[in-house]
Design a protein that fits this description.
- The protein has about 650 residues and is mainly beta.
- The protein is globular.
């Protein structure tokens, strides 16, 4: 995530000195990569692709027990690459149109008020599209690729860009003196998510404002806590003696869409919403330290007791979960599915296994934290969608351990197994899930470089892990062969489940590409030599796999200083001699981050989200009154507005 002057944003708490530092001696991914790739990297040179070695390739093929996919030596993407750079607006490849579909503040109901940035209220915001969309999903209605429900996470808010007169909040202003209760209430209403019916008419997408499906979910919406941690004493508060009800979801980053048509929304940097610190002798002190709780990025605790640890020490345990929502029922009570664990969830993308069970891959977005998967106990019922609504409450959560020989193991986080016992503070499975990070520490999981989105390719069964960066890994944490100490640009790991079975306990793995500028030898990037000066990228964040099985990467952290380019979308080859070749398709305006992406089933429309456009980069100041861009409206007096875009091909047809 970007780093800025002033107080920390909720989106960048993983960059702060007060985050959930992993204290264990578990091996880092850098140490393992050093052992795994030392000799091969020296032989192939800085521009060579991270190709699968003959030994591992043979082992992976045998493990997957499926014929090799026919490999083409030609590039599979045929769009004309755009120029990398940074300016005030967006850019897309030639031959494609960009439509601004939904902006922060746009009304999503027929009776909702129009956006007025000088006269916002919480009541208005609750009827309008929220702020900083991250995950986007498209769920077809009646099987149509041109008519469906858009589901969107609203991750966090930028007060300096949203509100007149607030400006940059200084990190020394512990009381957030310019933030009033009214402004906090608007922020609470701008968080959460939205369900919006959309349809394509004469080539253009439209919002159906009178839809029975449209809904706003906020940081105050009543929700149900389900699964093993529901009702546990550590989940109870003065407002909820049952430990089964909670108001709202916060900092919802990426997510997923299930085969039964529900939306999984993931709480990530929840730690930044809570005030105060607990004493060292408090029962939750160790737990909260591991998650970095107690350094607020918001003024919510100033006005609401539930965000003040001194008044409600258990409230923070009720956040950091995966939330399941049925978008077809506007009265559905969102469910926090505790069986999937409590971490800083980046996403929850899944795949139906060959035996019918559903497998969800999960990244914990923090330096030196872990990769997880959840395997349901039951099987997906393809004939009765409602029968699947409790599927995510029963199953097994695993954490990944990567071995230097290119193999890996999934370690179960099950109470009573190995060190997860009462002797180590785990009295039940609820304790294991509430303290997922500490449980994974004790199992010896591999420390990763900020695991973010993880997606499984249903055509090849390969799984792609986005690792954004780890600027804290020091030289003395790796040996001399490790090319990525101070890993500023991140990398992508490709995993192959044993036998093509996503529920298996073993897998093989390879580094698909190490990111950064391949023309700078010290960076150690491994894009294919066919990648142009515009095609390389840093800081992979979200990804998508289109219906043709091709991988698309969106980024978070590229800027004028870091890489000389804005964040955007790149298409990355994963097969054949062109493996590791990347092409630049779309870029965001200055200060922005690209989220999504999500394709319609026919690949003819691509949804993207631009978060925090105009957010100050290093050496800049950007406020409501004087933003560094007024994208996308470019009107005097109108602030910059995070937006959802849809890209279509001119004349129709599939993207790329």
């Amino acid at each position: 995530m970007n780093e800025h002057k002033g107080r920390l944003r909720a989106s960048e708490l993983e960059d702060s000195g007060d985050d959930g530092v992993n204290p264990t001696p578990n091996l880092t991914m850098g140490e393992i990569i050093a052992t795994r790739f030392n000799r091969r990297d020296l032989l192939r040179g800085s521009l060579a692709v991270a190709a699968i070695s003959a030994t591992v390739g043979t082992r992976a093929l045998a493990a997957n027990e499926q014929p090799a996919k026919k490999v083409s030596n030609a590039i599979s993407f045929d769009f004309k690459e755009i120029e990398a750079g940074v300016d005030q607006t967006h850019h897309v490849a030639e031959g494609y149109d960009v439509q601004v579909l939904l902006r922060w503040g746009d009304p999503i109901f027929a009776d909702a008020p129009e956006f007025d940035p000088m006269n916002q209220t919480a009541e208005k915001q609750a009827r309008q599209f929220g702020y900083n969309t991250d995950f986007i999903g498209f769920i077809p209605l009646n099987g149509s690729a041109d008519h469906g429900l858009l589901v969107a996470n609203h991750e966090y808010t930028n007060e300096e860009l949203m509100f007149p007169g607030v400006g940059i909040q200084d990190s020394k202003d512990a009381n957030f003196s310019k933030m009033t209760k009214d402004l906090v209430d608007i922020e609470i209403a701008a968080h959460g998510g939205a369900v919006v019916e959309i349809r394509r008419v004469n080539g253009k997408w439209q919002v159906v404002k009178d839809s029975k499906y449209n809904r706003r979910i906020t940081a105050a919406t009543p929700m149900e806590i389900t699964g093993p941690a529901a009702g546990h004493d550590r989940m109870k508060t003065s407002a909820d003696a049952t430990g089964r009800r909670v108001n709202g979801m916060i900092n919802n980053c990426a997510g997923g869409v299930t085969p039964w048509g529900t939306w999984l929304s993931c709480e990530e940097n929840f730690n930044g919403y809570f005030w105060g610190k607990l004493g060292d002798d408090h029962p939750e002190a160790r737990n909260y330290k591991r998650y970095g709780i107690g350094t607020p990025a918001y003024a919510w605790g100033k006005y609401y007791d539930r965000f003040d640890l001194a008044k409600e020490p258990n409230e923070a345990n009720r956040f950091g979960w995966v939330v399941e929502i049925d978008p077809f029922d506007p009265n559905f009570v969102p469910k926090k599915r505790t069986a999937l664990g409590r971490t800083k969830h980046e996403g929850a993308a899944g795949i139906t296994n060959s035996d019918g069970r559903y497998v969800v891959y999960l990244g914990d977005d923090e330096r030196f934290d872990y990769v997880y998967k959840f395997v349901t106990a039951g099987k997906v019922d393809t004939r009765n969608r409602v029968a699947n609504f409790g599927l995510l409450d029963e199953g097994t959560l695993y954490v990944a351990k990567y071995n230097a020989d290119g193999t890996g193991t999934w370690l179960p986080l099950v109470h009573g197994q190995g060190p997860l016992t009462e002797a180590n503070g785990f009295k039940s499975q609820a304790d294991v899930l509430i303290e997922t990070r500490r449980a994974a520490d004790l199992l010896g999981a591999t420390k990763m470089d900020r695991p973010e989105d993880i997606e499984a390719n249903p055509q090849t069964n390969r799984v792609y892990v986005m690792l954004t960066n780890n600027t804290r890994r020091k030289e003395d944490q790796v040996d001399a062969a490790n090319p990525r100490a101070n890993n500023a640009f991140g990398h992508i790991v490709e995993m192959m489940p044993e036998g093509g079975n996503h529920a298996a306990l073993s897998f093989t793995w390879e580094v698909l590409v190490k990111c950064g500028d391949p023309s700078i030898a010290s960076v150690g990037a491994t894009f294919s030599s066919e990648t142009t000066k515009n095609g390389w990228f840093g800081m992979p964040d979200n990804c998508a796999i289109d219906s043709q099985g091709r991988l698309w990467i969106s980024t978070d952290g590229n800027n004028a200083k870091a890489t000389g380019r804005a964040d955007g979308l790149w298409a990355l080859e994963t097969e054949g001699e062109m493996r590791g070749t990347s092409r630049h398709f779309f870029r965001v305006p200055v200060g922005g981050e690209l989220c999504g992406p999500f394709f319609t089933p026919n690949d003819e429309s691509l949804f993207l989200a631009v978060q925090h456009p105009g957010e100050a980069e290093e050496g800049m100041t950007s406020t409501f009154e004087n933003p560094i861009t007024r994208w996308p409206d470019f009107k005097d007096g109108m602030p910059t507005r995070p937006s959802v875009l849809v890209i279509t091909k001119q004349g129709g047809g599939k993207i790329a």
